[in-house]
Design a protein that fits this description.
The structure is a single chain. The chain has helices spanning about 70-80, 100-120, 125-135, 135-140, 180-190, 215-220, 225-235, 255-270, 295-305; strands at about 1-20, 25-50, 50-55, 85-90, 145-150, 155, 165-170, 210, 240, 250-255, 275-280, 290. By secondary structure, it is α+β, with helices and mostly antiparallel strands. The chain has 2 domains: about 1-160, Ribosomal Protein S5, domain 2, CATH 3.30.230.10; about 165-280, 2-Layer Sandwich (Alpha-Beta Plaits). The strands form 2 sheets. Strands 1, 2, 3, 4, 5, 6, 8 and 12 form an 8-stranded mixed beta sheet that branches. Strands 9-10-7-11 form a 4-stranded antiparallel beta sheet, covered by helices on one side. α1 (about 70-80) crosses α3 (about 125-135), α5 (about 180-190) crosses α6 (about 215-220) and α6 packs across α7. It is globular.
């Protein structure tokens, strides 16, 4: 059986970070929304026993067992006693280490495909497999926008009207930020101060309800990120902030036309220094579909014509 699905990127419209916990994690209060931007993930499940393989064409450094998608497949096989071989192929469209959840979303996409192929319907158990791979994976297994608490595993559905965004990802390797670095910088900046926690009660999302506790320490150490946020505001964004642990920054725009105009202006001014994406938030999880070869699609078109 061969299945295909979209692994959507996400942005954090709001990210509040609590004090460091004894287990080394932070409590979070985050409003996360999936996007129509994402990777294409194919999963082939063999009728016979075999290994898990993972290929990312054009990105050989992402191939193999260390990829979160491969780790998710191995976790699924252990949890549900599956011995069938699994071959994963990922077409990367979401930037890597960008604060957009690409790796976690790929892992969730694989779990959704394997659940369908192996007829596993225990959503809670699948979410536990995902959480063992990464804190954001349970969100990508959910139904859409959500408030995330705990490490990110406690999810509450959120109502968020469709939003038009422009995402700006800096290509400079010197601006790359690992999540652990961002949280360590925040802890260093907070040293000696008391963090009010938990935050105030969550309300319905409003465009003014945005913020990211990780942004100030990251911009302090990577000032270019603040410049990119300023470019988005100058191009008409009603709000501009960093997603997750960055370095991607994004802006909210009043409509698709305004977002496209802003993206053109930023591409013209920044050239190859950045990747710019126009995206829209979505409210439904991606479908898992049987894989069809491009040849079969072409022959169907030819027959219709």
């Amino acid at each position: 059986m061969r299945l295909v699905t979209l692994a959507p990127a996400k942005v954090n419209l709001l990210l509040r970070v609590g004090p460091l916990r004894p287990d080394g994690y932070h409590d979070l209060s985050s409003l996360m929304v999936p996007l129509d931007l994402g990777d294409r993930v194919e999963v082939a499940v063999s009728p016979r026993g075999g290994p898990v393989s993972c290929r990312v064409p054009g990105r050989p450094e992402l191939d193999g067992a260390a990829n979160l998608a491969a780790r998710a497949a191995e976790g699924f096989r252990r949890r549900f006693g599956v011995e069938r071989g699994v071959a994963i192929r990922i077409e990367k469209r979401t930037p890597v280490t960008a604060g957009l959840g690409g790796g976690s979303s790929d892992a969730a996409a694989v779990l959704r495909c394997l659940a369908r192929a192996c007829r596993v319907e225990d959503g809670a158990a699948i979410a536990e497999v995902g959480l063992a791979v990464g804190s954001d994976v349970p969100f990508f297994l959910g139904a859409g926008p959500a408030w995330a608490g705990g490490r990110g595993e406690r999810l509450t559905p959120a109502l968020v009207a469709p939003l038009d965004l422009v995402l700006v990802y800096p290509r400079d390797p010197g601006l790359a930020i690992r999540a652990g670095e961002a949280y360590a910088w925040l802890d260093a900046d907070r040293a000696g101060t008391e963090v009010a926690w938990p935050p105030r009660k969550r309300g319905r999302f409003r465009p003014t309800l945005t913020g990211n506790d990780l942004q100030p320490p990251c911009v302090r150490r990577k000032p270019a990120l603040g410049v990119l946020a300023g470019l988005l505001e100058s191009a008409g964004a009603t709000a501009a902030l960093m997603s997750g642990s960055g370095p991607t920054v994004f802006g909210l725009f009043p409509g698709r036309l305004a977002a496209r105009a802003a993206a053109r202006a930023i591409r013209a001014s920044q050239g190859e220094a950045v990747e710019v994406f126009v995206a829209r938030t979505v409210v439904r999880p991606p479908r898992v579909s049987p894989w069809r070869s491009p040849r079969s699609a072409s022959s169907r078109s030819a027959r219709r014509s």
